[in-house]
Amino acid sequence: GTVFVVQWDQVYLQGKEDVGSFTFQAALHSSGRIVFGYKEIPVPVLQISASQHPVKAGLSDAFMVLNPSPDVPESRRRTIYEYHRVELDTGRIASLSAVEFTPLPTCLQHRSCEMCVTSELTFNCSWCHVLQRYP
């Protein structure tokens, strides 16, 4: 009830099955922490060809827009817009390693307007969720 884990187990690079399999996971904690765990990384990630197997490691925000396809009226075309990317140094990803992302404090953690405006955050937290307006 406090963590959701997704594991990729024995994943092979297409055409490079002889290098071995990758096993890794992502754990999303209810506290906001995100942990990437790398159990088996048989080859340095920097040696993986980006043209054949694009490697992305880290976090990013994105949104998706569905547009009607001009060629097929019944279908829709997905466009994903990515922003605010945090990339891991893929040279540091190795077997039996982990990376943890810990969320910074935000106004959303406060349960009342008073808690929000009197907080010691390093930015101007002034939105009052209870009143749905700026105080």
Automatic annotation (TrEMBL):
Record organism: Ptilorrhoa leucosticta
Subcellular location: Membrane
Keywords: Membrane, Signal, Transmembrane, Transmembrane helix
Gene Ontology cellular-component annotations: membrane
Gene (name only): Plxdc1
Tree of life domain: Eukaryota
Similarity annotation: Belongs to the plexin family.
Signal peptide: none
Protein's recorded name: PLDX1 protein
Chief place of localization: membrane
Topology of this chain in the membrane: Single-pass type I membrane protein
